[in-house]
Each structure stands twice: as structure tokens, then as C-alpha cells.
Amino acid sequence: xxxIYNKLSSxxxxxxxxxxxxxxxxxxxxxxxxxxxxxxYPSFGIKPNETCDMLFYGQALxxxxxxxxxxxxxxxxxxxxxxxxxxxxxxxxxxxxxxxVNVKWSNSVFNSIVKDEDAKxxxxxxxxxxxxxxxxxxxxxxxxxxxxxxxxASFDWAKRTVWSNLYKITEDGANPNRFLREQQxxxxxxxxxxxxxxxxxxxxxVLTNYDWWEPFGIELGTKSIPYDKDLNNIASFEQLNETKFxxxxxxxxxxxxxxxxxLLKIIG
Length: 268
Fold this sequence. Notes:
Layout: H1 10-27, E1 36-39, E2 43-44, E3 54-58, E4 67-69, H2 78-87, H3 99-103, H4 107-113, H5 117-123, H6 135-148, E5 162-165, E6 169-171, H7 178-182, H8 185-199, E7 203-206, H9 210-220, E8 223-224, E9 234-240, E10 243-248, H10 257-267
Parallel strand pairs: 3-5, 3-7, 7-10
Antiparallel strand pairs: 1-4, 1-6, 2-5, 8-9, 9-10
């Protein structure tokens, strides 16, 4: 039986579903493309009641296992499907929902871990995506490891953080264009606000480029914090209540070491 590792509040879940239903109602009579969209519920490495020091944000997903059709009825158990897609975990290996990043790092790592039939059934989804190619995941695992003084070669970083995205809905296989972002921006902002209020992270690391983040910062009312502008990979440093936001540039490729160094400097 697949169990849920962690989740946010019922208030968050209700708002999450409002986002999906509102999005569907806006598009069902005007959208002329494929009706299938993927949606993303935040994914946890930390367990319930554990401290969240760092919450990482991406832009949006290019693909995911949870989704819905804007031309069809939304099933009653949709929120459970979304939560499960992001927060199921392989307990036999003491994994967290974020350990898929470790397992799918490379073919050699995947083959060294995914040996028995249960592991194959859990981690084999037909995709050949390998996370070592991702600038985002290289920064996430290195920064979390170095922040906590963990061995980078271990999987331990995946027990220390939470992953979310600015936009929770997108076409399968593509980032949301401007039109699709506009259809969900208001509730997307409200969801981020709830994530911050419930998790109370010390830092939000926003690996998106400033253009993606700027409307959210304005809507949330974050305040700018002075920082060394020689840190050229840092696009902005902001604060909302007790949480500090570090927004970085987002190259398509690279090891992330330069970003990592500057993030650690600004965190101090």
C-alpha cells in the first residue's frame, strides 16, 4: 500500500482544488488544444512537524504523473491523486518523496538501486529522464548538502527540504505560456503565500530567473534586502515576514557550482 509521506493543510488542499476547477472552467469553452494538463502538489523531504529551513521553487513542470482534462469532469479524488503523485515514497529503502531525484540521477545509479520487482514497479515510469542533466537539481542537492554539512555522495539531502513550483498547472511537456500563467496567477500567489505560512521556511530559493518571480514578489509584497551586487548569479534578495527569498538566474546547463558559491555567501 502506498502511503502519503507528508502534506499541507486541508485549507491548502481546498485552494489547490479551486485552482484546478477555476482553470478548467476558464479554458473548457475556449481552449482548442489537447485538454490534458499536469498539476503539481508540493513534494516533501521533511516529515510532519520537522523544521523547513529551505523551500526550493522552480518555474513549473514540463511533465508529471498527476493531471486532469479540461474537457472532462474532475474526479472526486483528484486532490488525493495530486498529493500521492508528489508525496508517495519507497519505504523499503527508507526513501522520501524526493529520493526519485537520487535514484534517477544516472543510468548507473538507477541500475544499482532499482533491482527487485517492487523497486522497479515504483521507479520505472517509462521516462528516460536523468536528473544529473538538470541545473535545478544539481543546485538543490548541493546547496542542501553543503548547508547542513552532509556528504554530497549520500542521499541525505532529500530528507531536509521541500520542493514546489510557482505555477502548479501546465501543459504536459511544456512550461505554461503567458496566457496559461495568467489563468492561474492569482491563486498561484495565494498558494505560495499559504506554503510560506504553513512551512515557515528560513529561505526560499527561487531558481527561475527574475522575470518569472517578479509578479509574485509584487503581489506578495516582499521587501528588498541590500546585497553584494558582485554576486552576479543572484537576481534579487527579498523578505516576507521571517522568510528570506533568494532569486537566482537560471541557465539551461551547468554544474551550478558558481550559483552554489554565491547562494552560500548570501546565506552566510
